[in-house]
Design brief:
Two copies of one chain form a homodimer.
Chain A lengths: L3 E6 L29 H10 L7 E6 L3 H7 L8 E4 L5 H15 L4 E6 L3 E2 L2 H15 L5 E6 L10 E4 L8 E7 L4 H10 L2 E11 H11 L1 H10 L8 H11 L5 H6 L5 E6 L3 E2 L4 H7 L8 E3 L2 E4 L5 E3 L5 E5 L4 E6 L2 E6 L6 H10 L7
Parallel strand pairs in A: 1-2, 1-4, 2-3, 6-10, 12-14, 13-15, 14-16
Antiparallel strand pairs in A: 4-9, 5-11, 6-9, 7-8, 7-9, 8-10, 16-17
Helix pairs in contact in A: 3-6, 3-7, 6-7, 7-8
Chain lengths: ~350, ~350
């Protein structure tokens, strides 16, 4: 598909996999599933089935530039778009859309997170192609919905209009991370799917949407368009970002736009948003343990055990435990621990122990 | 007490504190209690209250020679007796007794393990002095008994004859590590005390005992006596050890001799024989956790958490757990784990992972 471009958003710096994910090397750059490839590399490969390598762009923070270049040596530096700081997904998508649109105003753009997993690649590919065809040369913005199999409270939900005559359903509402009771209602109703965070649109339709719903942001990017593909690009982008508010594309545009559609599928998707979802997405031993690295495990069940290569981790007589040894830190936490990882990471920072983050 | 000598047995190579204790640095050389001193150093200091530094001897394996010299710089090399390999306590005590006896045939010798702890030093000192006085210039072999406060199955027990007329009670039986039911009977009877592994005797009485109960061993040491304090000593000892059977002084002599006595006391003793006894002997936080090193602990109770200085250990939402991070290994084990540390250490060896032992 010659006009099809992919934008992989790889700027996250979450610590939900601490101590595995670190500020210097967040989740998307890690081999979270133990398959010998980072999530970014897996995402890149997945989209190579859809378009050429030179039409795939990565947007990320400046500090990850060399990490990206190292993990994806196929890319030219022109394909790595650098943000000066995090401003959520809307500015990230604006930057990439303006950049691609300047060279190819007829482009169809697929935007995807870098750090999700997909187990059924073929279904995924055909679904994305369907979305791209629906978005191509049209005003439609197409999202991707995953049939839910549980009332997950960590995901966003998309409600759509039942219409058996088409695979491209009109979206009614977006809901971010609902309470459990609400999530249950959503799943039971059959009208809701998980929001996979993937958006497909033409350059013209996304520019129209930015102009309509985030006009300040559109104006900022309009004003720097002339510097794209010049020596002044980075400086202009850095300045432009200082003027952008931090807002997600979901909240800034998708929830408000009337031309949003969704394609549905079951392609074995997880956002790998936490140690729990990593456990769900990983292969287990006969005692339902997920075991990685150099570990010896005795009399233990339902554990997530992530060891290091050259360190030995011995786990004995425990259930429902997370044990993660990475770099200079070890985390041992029961899966129903009341203290959140967010709190722990916050405390580490507060105690001036940032060398462990 | 000018004729009083101390022999500290520091040849053990146990792995009951793995991963904290290692083959290269077993428990006696470690600061197990986190007090800034190794157990050997604490034992040495304890006996300095009883005799002069130049009358304290250490018996250990050759491979620990430099470790001992480093931890106890007060000692001359003459005071460090080196065994070629482990042969349990009987040959160790024979070697030290022959060595001391050759120079001072009137010596009273106190033999003690290097790796036990004593929390009430003054009571200990006066009890040992009492034992030394009882053994001095007599045929009596005097052991030290600790009033039991629980039916511990990991300790040896000494049964003695009730006799209110003296503090030096006659010993009836020695029992190694009894079953729980038997240990209960022992403690309830009031006739049993824990065997602290300390023996006090004159040179003449121990030589007599070796001649009577371990005549082959006595003969072997008789034959090398001429080489003690000469350049040939080590070679002679090495050869002598090949002829000695591996046997404990308890089993080889104490259980059989008729002239064994015991002094009793409560001096806050533990053999620190396992992670459990370490927990019992250590200061706890308000949630009954023992915490060492660089650790952050949340919502956890009754845990033993031993971190490293420059590594961070985070423990969250667990009870009755042992987490020990040392060197290149981490152990996470429930306190009631069915698999023994002995089995784990055996498995590590069987898997050719001796770099972790």
């Amino acid at each position: 598909m010659s006009n099809t471009y992919v934008v992989i958003m790889a700027g996250g710096s979450g610590t939900r996999f601490w101590p595995f994910s670190r500020v210097k090397k967040p989740k998307q750059f890690l081999d979270v599933l133990g398959l010998g490839k980072s999530l970014l590399q897996m995402t890149f490969e997945r989209f190579r089935a859809i378009t050429d390598a030179d039409k795939i762009f990565i947007v990320s923070n400046k500090k990850y530039k060399s990490l990206i270049a190292k993990q994806l040596p196929e890319l030219s530096m022109e394909q790595i778009l650098l943000e000066p700081f995090q401003r959520n997904t809307a500015p990230c998508i604006a930057y990439a859309s303006y950049k691609i649109g300047k060279k190819d105003p007829n482009a169809t753009i697929i935007v995807s997170p870098a750090d999700h997993v997909v187990f059924k690649d073929e279904i995924f590919t055909s679904l994305i192609k369907k979305a791209a065809n629906a978005a191509k040369s049209s005003e439609r913005i197409v999202t991707v919905g995953v049939e839910p199999n549980r009332p997950e409270t960590g995901y966003g939900y998309i409600q759509y209009m039942e219409d058996d005559s088409t695979d491209i359903k009109k979206v009614k509402t977006f809901t971010e991370k609902p309470e459990l009771e609400i999530a249950r209602t959503f799943v039971e109703s059959g009208e809701f799917v998980w929001n996979a965070g993937i958006f497909v649109f033409s350059v013209s339709s996304i520019k129209t949407a930015f102009g309509q719903f985030l006009p300040d942001m559109a104006e900022s990017f309009d004003s720097i368009e002339e510097h794209l593909y010049t020596a002044k690009e980075q400086e202009a982008v850095d300045e432009c970002y200082t003027q952008c508010k931090s807002i997600s594309i979901d909240y800034g545009i998708m929830e408000k736009a009337k031309n949003v559609f969704v394609v549905l599928g079951d392609f074995g998707w997880s956002d790998l948003g936490s140690w729990d979802t990593l456990y769900e997405s990983s292969e287990k031993d006969e005692n339902d343990n997920v075991i990685r690295g150099n570990a010896m495990v005795y009399d233990s069940n339902n554990c997530t055990i992530i060891g290091r290569k050259k360190k030995l981790l011995v786990v004995c007589g425990v259930d429902d435990l997370l044990v993660a040894h990475h770099g200079n830190a070890v985390l041992v936490a029961s899966k129903d621990c009341k203290t959140s990882l967010r709190q722990i990471v916050h405390d580490i920072q507060a105690q001036n122990k940032s060398e462990y983050l």
